[in-house]
Amino acid sequence: MIRLSKDELRRQRRARGRALLAAIACGGAVAAAFYAARSRAASPAPAPASAPASAPKPVQTGEAALGDWTTDAPGVRRRITTRELAKPFATPSVDNGPRMVPRPAGALPQAPAGFKVEEFAAGLNNPRVIRAAPNGDLFVAESRPGQIRMLRDADGDGKPEMNQVFATGLRQPFGIAFYPPGPAPTHVYVANTDSVVRFRYVNGDTSARATEEMIVDNISGGGQLRGGGHWTRDIAFSRDGRKMYVSVGSRSNVMERPELEAVEERRARIFEYTPDGKNERVFAWGIRNPVGIAVHPVTGDLWTSVNERDGLGDHLVPDYVTRVQDGGFYGWPWYYIGPNQDPRHEGKRADLRSKVLVPDVLLQSHSASLAMTFYDGRQFPRDYQYHAFAAEHGSWNRARRTGYKVVRIPIRGGRATGEYEDFLTGFVTPEGNVWGRPVGVTVGKNGALLVSDDGANMIWRVSYVGTNRTANTAR
C-alpha cells in the first residue's frame, strides 16, 4: 500500500476544493454532481434502523391539508384544526362510493423510503380486524362468513406456513383481544355485532378448544346500511387486565327522527366492564362510531378511531383519532368537534354544548377511519416507537375520494402532536377506481406491521429494510 506524505495529502485536498469551486462558478452541474457523488461514496454507511427513515416533509395546513386521494403519498403530513371546519352544506352531500376493480397486475401499496411492502396472505374472505397473539400467530376476523382465521409464520420469512380457521359460527365478528394481557393468555375474546364471547386459549392453539362462552349478551347489534347501521364492535383490555372496553357505533347517521332516540340508547358509546362481563358502565359517549379502540402500551390510556357523521358536505365532519377521556362526551348527535351544533338538531341540548370535547387528531372528512394500533415493535426507526397507526377504509360521501390508506399519528409523551402522516397509500388507480381498502393494523412479533385489506381480500406486511435497500418489492 502506498503511503502519501502529509504535504501530498494537503496538496490533493486543495486541488479537489479548487475543482469543485471552479465547477460551481462556471455552472458546471455535471462536474459538481460527479464530485458530490465521490464525496457520498466516501461517507459513512447509512444510519441503522434506530434513525428516522427520511427527513419529514413540511406539514400541510389550512385548505391544503384537506386534499383528496390525488394528494396522498407516503410521508405527506397534515394538520387539520377547528379553523378548517367548513360551513354545513358548503358543498352538496354526494353518494360517491368506491368503484371497486381487481388489483392491477403487480400493484403494491406504497410506503415511505426504507420500508418494504409485500403480500403476506391472499385469498381471504372479508378480512377485517387483525391481532397478533403473544406467540406471534395472527388472528383475523373474517366478518362476513362469521369466523376467526389463524395464520402462522413460524420461520419469519413473511409467508404463513399455517392458514386455517380457528372458530366459526360467529355473528359478524370484528374485535379480537387476548386475555390476560401479557405473554400467557388463557382466553381469546371476540366482539360479535351483538355480544362478546370468549374461547379458552393457550399459546399455539390453532383451533378453539371448546364452544364459545358468552360474556356480554346485550350489545346493541347493527345492520350494514349506507351511512349508518354501524355493526362493528371492537374490544380491548386495560394494561392490568382489570377492565374490558367495548365500542358500539350508532344505528343512524345523526338520530334524524325522534323515534330513533330509543334505538340509540345503548349506542355511540364505549362501555367498560370487568373481564367477566360484569359491572357495566359508560366510559365515554357521543362518539358516533368508535370503530377501533386500543390501549397505549406505556400510558395505559384508551384511544379510539372514529367515523363521524355524513350529509353535511365534502369537508364535514372530520373523522378523528383521540385519547378517550373517562366520562367524556364527544358531541354526537347534537354537536361535532367541540361546540358546533349540527343544523339538523338546531337549538337542541344546549345544556351539553360546553361539555363537548375536541378530539386530538382530526382526519380528512369521510375517510372512514377503522382499526388502530400502537407500534411497540423494535424493527421500525426509533421515531415510530409508540406512535399510532390507523386504517382509513375510504370515503363514499365525498365528491373527491379520500382515505384508502394507512396513516401514522405521532405521539410524544403519551399525547398526540395533532398532525398525521400518510404511511401506506396507492390503493386507488390513476383513474380513481379502488382496488384495496385497509381495515385492520397490528404489529407482528418480529416488528413488521400487518395490514388487512377487505378490498383485495389479503394481508400486507410492511417491514423496515433501511434506506439503502429497495422498498416495495414483491416476493
UniProtKB/TrEMBL annotation:
<feature type="compositionally biased region" description="Low complexity">
    <location>
        <begin position="43"/>
        <end position="56"/>
    </location>
</feature>
<protein>
    <submittedName>
        <fullName>L-sorbosone dehydrogenase</fullName>
    </submittedName>
</protein>
<feature type="domain" description="Pyrroloquinoline quinone-dependent pyranose dehydrogenase beta-propeller">
    <location>
        <begin position="354"/>
        <end position="462"/>
    </location>
</feature>
<feature type="region of interest" description="Disordered">
    <location>
        <begin position="43"/>
        <end position="70"/>
    </location>
</feature>
<dbReference type="InterPro" id="IPR011042">
    <property type="entry name" value="6-blade_b-propeller_TolB-like"/>
</dbReference>
<dbReference type="InterPro" id="IPR054539">
    <property type="entry name" value="Beta-prop_PDH"/>
</dbReference>
<dbReference type="Pfam" id="PF22807">
    <property type="entry name" value="TrAA12"/>
</dbReference>
<dbReference type="InterPro" id="IPR011041">
    <property type="entry name" value="Quinoprot_gluc/sorb_DH_b-prop"/>
</dbReference>
<feature type="domain" description="Pyrroloquinoline quinone-dependent pyranose dehydrogenase beta-propeller">
    <location>
        <begin position="110"/>
        <end position="312"/>
    </location>
</feature>
